[in-house]
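Task: fold both queries, return tokens.
Query 1:
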Amino acid sequence: MAAKNTNMLSLIFSFIILGLAHLNLVNTLSANYYDQTCPNAESTITSVVKKAMLNDPRVPAALLRMHFHDCFIRGCDGSVLLNSTGKNKAEKDGPPNISLHAFYVIDNAKKAVEALCPKTVSCADILALAARDAVTLSGGPTWVVPKGRKDGRVSKATETRQLPAPTFNISQLQQSFAQRGLSLDDLVALSGN
């Protein structure tokens, strides 16, 4: 059990580090980013996640996986949420992401937050908070999510090739994770044990 908690904490901190390092937002992210502009954002997102979990027990894993896939490509910028357009096939429609689901949870959370504070909370932050809530509400640890991410406006299905393939052997997985500053513990936590 201690190893499982250690792996989960390692995963959590890796997401935070990955998001910060990849986007170079160390000075702009803050735990209290929405305290003045949208103080009920986090509790609203938590309520939406909780409701979704009651209807679908797969939601926690789906949200954590979605967040991982988002962070692994362009940093934690919400680009995995963007839809394809006539000229561009988005990450969401890339082969490794076709099986992602629970986008409706993020859509519902965004709608609820927009009703409180229009044009204030980024989808990237909503996804990060929803993934944290899914883990916590499932009995896992909680953590403070630094907020203030800006939503990505670029999303390319071709970039999903950066995600580790299900056919990768352990050496390939370790190399893929190491290129993003993630450890073997992170790999185990994200792959399940």
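Query 1 returned. Query 2:
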Amino acid sequence: MSSVLVEVITVQITVTLRRQPVGGLGLSIKGGAEHKVPVVISKIFKDQAADQTGMLFIGDAIIQVNGINVESATHEEVVHLLRNAGDEVTITVQYLREAPSFLKLPLGSPGPSSDHSSGASSPLFDSGLHLNGNSTNTAPSSPSSPIANEPKYEKRWLDTLSVPLSMARISRYKAGTDKLRSNAFEVLALDGVSTGILQFYTAQESADWLRAISTNISDLTLQNMKMANKCCSPSDQVIHMGWVNERLDGTDSSQLYKFKFLALKGSSFYIFSTPPVSTLDWVRAEKIYNLCEVLFKIHKLWLADDCWLQANLYLGIHQDFDLEDQRPYCFSVMVGHGKSHYFNVELGSELAVWEKSFQRAIFLEVQRTGSKTYMCSWQGDTLCFTVDFALGFTCFDSKTKNVLWRFKFSQLKGSSDDGKTRVKLLFQNLDTKQIETKELEFQDLTAVLHCIHSFIAAKVASVDPVFIDSQSIARKYMYSN
């Protein structure tokens, strides 16, 4: 399925309107039993009571008013009920797939049995319920009237709407907030087309549709990745890509989320505002980081029994995040100089895929790279520190290239740092079994520590194939619950 087809099904909904001091109920009606046609909403006035519900549309047939069935009521009876129903009016409406022909009459067109001289409302003319006071027959405005020349605001049903799913994104949250919509979500296409808010009767129905559409988007994304990889070298393949929400912290500490498109490709982790659709787009990313120097960390995922699990995957560096939000599937990517990006996805399965993809992309990059060397210093001497997949750790003089010390990964027994530039690495001497402390100073300590973590994890994974699965917090908990 390459697109989602939204079709309006004939259902009844009940809405409570709160009558406003100016504007009343904010709607007009046409029709009535005397002409064997239903009473329908013929106009909705912008920003007034009916419009503010977001659930009423032109063409909706009124079935009940405050629990009173009006399917057999005359036009005047329905007008009377609505105008005298109090400050809160509860109406039940039903969408009519085929709009009644009288609804399509231009404003002011005479009905077959209308009598304007009587002053009574005609079922084929709009009876305005947007004003308080006596019932008004909205007689046609003269051509010279300013009101007649104003653009008409109409909110109508659409029978079908096709939304392309390739590179589309889904949101269950109100724009820019962490407030979850109740049993509803929105699908937004790459070209800007939106389904609008899709409201479902039950949480299960909403979850089923969300999962189905998300699966199709993922399948199409996978197809796009395969096509992109045909143009890329084996060392520059796309491992995974997709939409997330990034939390941006404002100066007033307010939380704002924005859509971002992430990609794991070759040696780099990319952050885009819009998906790359051509080869040239890859150099236009907002941020690009080396995969060896980033750290993926799960923060929250939603479990059974409505409890939070806050998971910490990192050993060595501790960083606190404000987790007081309502988004359940959250992860961060820590980068150099102590900075980080905090993301959220819609489904637990997406969180598990990102976790696995980051692990795979980092391990592949470590194996391709083989080693990383960083400039460092200690006691005034300029040194080079190398992390090598085969040899482990090596420190040598940057000028003479003389090796000062070398240890295997298995000899590293611990580490500590000042959170700024200095780190102490504790190695066990294989001969004496004593612990030797090596202290170094780096310009970007965070990147070096992330690199050490990546190389050690990749080394263990190469020896123990089940290591990756044993480290997967998201897959372990999401799939078992």
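Both queries returned. Flag for query 2: The longest helix spans residues 203-229.
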